[in-house]
Amino acid sequence: MSANPREAYESIEKATLSGRDLEASVLSRASAMLSDVQQRWDEPDRDKLLDHVLRHNQRVWTLFQSELMDESNPLPVEIKRNLMALSNFIDKRTVDILVEPERAKLDALITINQNIAAGLRGSA
Fold first, then answer.
1. pLDDT value for 57
2. Of 68, 70, 79, 123, which one has the greatest count of Cβ atoms within 10 A?
3. What CATH number is associated with residue 81?
4. In whole angstroms, what is the distance from residue 121 CA to residue 124 CA?
5. Cβ contacts of residue 109 below 8 Å, gap of 6+?
6. Tens digit of pLDDT for each residue in 77-95?
7. Domain containing 33: what range?
């Protein structure tokens, strides 16, 4: 058991969540991390935090990309295509923010993550 209560909770959450709930949870967490950077935009360590959070979000979407490319993925082709288009947008927006950081540019990433998470939970 972890000495850090948050890590312990996240470990239990990962062990009990599966499939869509886990994906929704991961997207929600990435969205919360992006929102946190927006709220802390004027802090001196913003660039380091922004880099970390953007790379985390990009890793999440890279995992989705690999799942979408898996031939055994049961999603309909059209949904896969749409999610890949979103993923490509996220890649481009991430690079854009890394090159020219602007607080408002994070809005699209946050909204996409929140909407996909809501859809996975069936609350969209």
1. 97
2. 68
3. 1.20.120
4. 8
5. 31, 34, 57, 90, 93, 94, 97
6. 999 999 999 999 999 999 9
7. 5-121
Domain count, the chain: 1
Name the amino acid, one letter, at 92.
K
What is this structure's pTM?
0.82
Measured distance CA(64)–CA(69) in Å, rounded: 9
Question: Residue 19 class from Cβ within 10 Å (0-12 exposed, 13-18 middle, 19+ buried)?
Answer: exposed
* CB of 124 closer than 8 Å to CB of 24: no
- Give the Cα separation of 33 and 21 in Å (integer): 18
Structure token digits, residue 83: 């999610």
Residue bearing tokens 């890394």: 98
